Amino acid sequence: MRVKAGILIFALLLAAVPSTGLAAIGTIRFDDKIESMKKAGVGPVMFPHDKHEKTNKCDECHPKIFKDKRGENNISMKLNMEGKFCGSPNCHNSPKAFPLFQCASCHTGVKAVKKN
Amino acid sequence: MKASSTCKHLKVALLFSLLLIFGFAVTVAVSDAESVTKTKAKTMVAAATQAAPAPAKKSEKAEAPKIDPTDTTSVIYLDTAGKPAGVGDPNKPPSMAYKAGRGWHPQALAAQGLPKDRYGLIDWARIVRENLVKPRFSLNPEDDEMPPLKMDVLITAKGDFVNDVIYPHEMHTFWLKCEICHATVGGPIFIPVKGSNDMSMVGIVQGQWCGRCHGKIAFPLTDCSRCHTSPKKAASK
């Protein structure tokens, strides 16, 4: 019974997704490398998926740049710098979007640094 | 009688002006703009004394297409959008200027033949490596020349997933004195003791440490992999 209900809900969800145009994703939190981020003095990234939907079509990013499954994309600043993920040549590694070095544009919890 | 004499005068004047043009062409090849104006003045004076100055003037214009620095319509003073250049905000980093549609003078740069990086900015480091320029060490000829310091410093990146930085003293000391970074007015930018500079990318972006120059007069921070070159062992992925 429960399984059946689950399947029904899943099917309903599947039917609902195309009608909303995948617009309900909202903001995704990237914090799987939180230890490294702490060392670098930044907080997790709050990725505004809805903001990107307005300027990009789905197939511009998925599945070529980002696999459309949570936890499948091992995003790191190193790979961004190498032109992958956010730092793809037409994205945040080009004059079209803000450059990668603007930490506070993506990372939360970036504080003003006082020298020594 | 009168007509024939003016004809003779004209002939003499034409011959003379031809000679002048020839001489003018030779001097242009070897001398600079100043002497050009001088010869121009000379020919003008000479032509004024003669009957036929018109043909000499015309050929002069065709021979010397000199660029007038005060003329804003001159090609060398146009930016990438075709507007007169020189309106960029010097306080903002070059990448910002590029975004705002401002760029280098393309014609002037092409004429110089200076190497450029992938952002189209002049690659000053490559200029040094390829011996394209040889600036004087000092304006004062009595100053002792100091060779660049050959010392690379490994700066470990704070994050686990970012390549470390190998800082080349050599390239920096080619352009700069030690005191510029290590004995700056208002405290040194870098304390010349290993491990005593708690640098971070966040601080650099906010204009500390490397960010004092990079993004302003040196190549912008946009070019991550130009500094972050040394792979970390821990982050192989």
CATH architectural designation of the largest domain in chain B: Alpha-Beta Complex
Order of strands in the sheet with most strands of chain B:
1-2-3
Determine the oligomeric state from the structure. Answer: heterodimer
Helix % of chain A is 25-40%
Give the C-alpha Rg of chain A: 17 Å
CATH architecture call of chain A: Alpha-Beta Complex
- The CATH class of chain A is Alpha Beta
Number of domains of chain A: 1
User: Which blocks of ≥5 consecutive residues of chain A have pLDDT under 50?
Assistant: 12-20
Could you give the topology of this structure?
The complex is a heterodimer of chains A (116) and B (237).
Chain A: H1 2-20, E1 27-30, H2 34-40, E2 45-48, H3 49-55, H4 58-61, H5 77-81, H6 103-106
Antiparallel strand pairs in A: 1-2
Chain B: H1 2-30, H2 33-49, H3 54-63, H4 94-99, H5 106-112, H6 124-129, E1 152-155, E2 164-168, H7 169-175, H8 178-182, H9 201-205, E3 228-230
Antiparallel strand pairs in B: 1-2, 2-3
Question: Could you characterize what this model shows?
Answer:
The complex is a heterodimer of chains A (116) and B (237). Chain A has a single domain, classed as Cytochrome C3. Helix content of chain A is 40%, strand content 7%. Chain A is built from six helices and two strands, in the order αβαβαααα. A two-stranded antiparallel ribbon of chain A has the order 1-2. The longest helix of chain A has 19 residues, at 2-20. Residues 12-20 of chain A have low confidence and may be disordered. With 237 residues, chain B is mainly alpha-helical. Chain B has three domains: 2-63, no CATH class; 75-129, no CATH class; 152-230, Cytochrome C3. In chain B, 39% of the residues lie in helices and 5% in strands. Chain B has helices at residues 2-30, 33-49, 54-63, 94-99, 106-112, 124-129, 169-175, 178-182, 201-205, and strands spanning 152-155, 164-168, 228-230. The longest helix of chain B is centred in the first third of the chain and has 29 residues, at 2-30. The A-B interface holds A 33, 35-37, 39-42, 74, 76-79, 81-82, 93, 95, 99-104, 110-113, 115-116 and B 95, 98-99, 157-163, 187, 191, 198, 200-206, 208-209, 215, 220-222, 224-225, 228, 235, 237.
